[in-house]
From TrEMBL:
This is Dihydroorotate dehydrogenase. Keywords: Cytoplasm, Flavoprotein, FMN, Oxidoreductase, Pyrimidine biosynthesis. Catalyzes the conversion of dihydroorotate to orotate with NAD(+) as electron acceptor. The active site is at 128 (nucleophile). Heterotetramer of 2 PyrK and 2 PyrD type B subunits. It catalyses: (S)-dihydroorotate + A = orotate + AH2; (S)-dihydroorotate + NAD(+) = orotate + NADH + H(+).
Length: 302
């Protein structure tokens, strides 16, 4: 096992740095480029059965500590996206298909189409804070229904992306695991809002959006810690405000087996190699041989 190799159920990655959904991975060539830049895997833009234009502009607001967005899941639909994914998969890119739907059957159909296109797994987006699919991830019963249905319909690993916009994220995580989830991703963005003080109008076209970036990192670390502490057995993928290798290390220590990068890509592709280099340096300095020696270590020291 190499230094940075990590295991997510039946998925083995060369390194733990995954590109989060919504970041550049909208075309096959874009996915190939992200992999060539050093990513362990790439998550596609969230895809629905039919094409979706998304919310009215403006859809993104910059804040002092991150981005507030309300994109509304714009995507070309699974028919077009599966063609793009197939391009990357033929080149050996480990692609994870991000799935959303407005019914259980739609989740199932999109997941099956991604599987046919060659992805290594699907990530169920039941947590988008500015679309109705976000309500699924706030309800144990709905979470179970969607995860169970998809799990019964595909052979590839099913990953479930959780929302922090709940009272107890561990409760939802356990329900997803009970339904058969092979891994969990935590967290999606945190609900937020911005108002133009010159006009008094909400800035985002959809009024309320999801906050990402450094502001939500402590929330994400707390959520991962609580999920890990709850006794969940499946691996956790941490995401939310990771900007450097020290942030990534913190997520691993909280219980993540891999991490995703989103907003930090504003700094450029080089963030992937910087995180890998930083983690490798830390492991060498501390005479560690595998990432498993780091994962969840914070729980042993409390």
């Amino acid at each position: 096992m190499s230094f940075l190799e990590t295991i997510l159920g039946s998925i083995k990655l060369e390194n733990p740095v995954i590109i989060a959904s919504g970041v550049l991975a909208t075309t096959g060539e874009g996915m190939k480029l992200l992999y060539e830049k050093g990513a362990g895997a790439v998550v596609t833009k969230t895809t629905t059965l039919n094409s979706k234009p998304g919310n009215p502009n403006p859809t993104i607001v910059s804040t002092p500590s991150g981005l507030l967005n309300s994109m509304g899941l714009p995507n070309p639909g699974i028919e077009e996206m599966s063609r793009e994914v197939a391009v990357a998969c033929r080149e050996g890119v480990p692609v994870i298909g991000s799935v959303a739907g407005f019914s259980v059957n739609e989740f199932v159909e999109v997941a099956k189409r991604f599987e046919e296109a060659g992805v290594i797994g699907v990530e169920l987006n039941i947590s988008c804070p500015h679309e109705k699919v976000g309500l699924i991830g706030q309800d144990c019963k709905l979470t179970y229904q969607v995860v169970k249905a998809v799990k019964n319909s595909v052979k590839i690993p099913v990953i479930v992306k959780l929302t922090p916009n709940v009272t107890d994220i561990a409760e939802i995580a356990l329900e997803a695991e009970k339904a058969g989830a092979d891994a969990l991703t935590a967290i999606n963005t945190v609900k937020g809002m911005a108002i133009d003080v010159n006009t008094g109008y909400p800035i985002l076209g959809a009024k309320i959006g999801g906050l990402s970036g450094p502001a939500i990192k402590p929330i994400a670390v707390r959520c991962i810690y609580e999920i890990y502490e709850s006794g969940v057995k499946v691996p956790i993928i941490g995401v939310g405000g990771i900007s450097n290798w020290r942030d990534a290390l913190e997520f691993l220590m909280a219980g993540s087996s891999a991490i995703q990068i989103g907003t930090a890509f504003m700094k450029g592709y080089q963030i992937i190699e910087k995180i890998k280099k930083g983690l490798t340096g830390y492991m060498k300095k501390n005479k560690l041989q595998t990432l498993t020696q780091i994962i969840g270590i914070a729980h042993k020291r409390c």
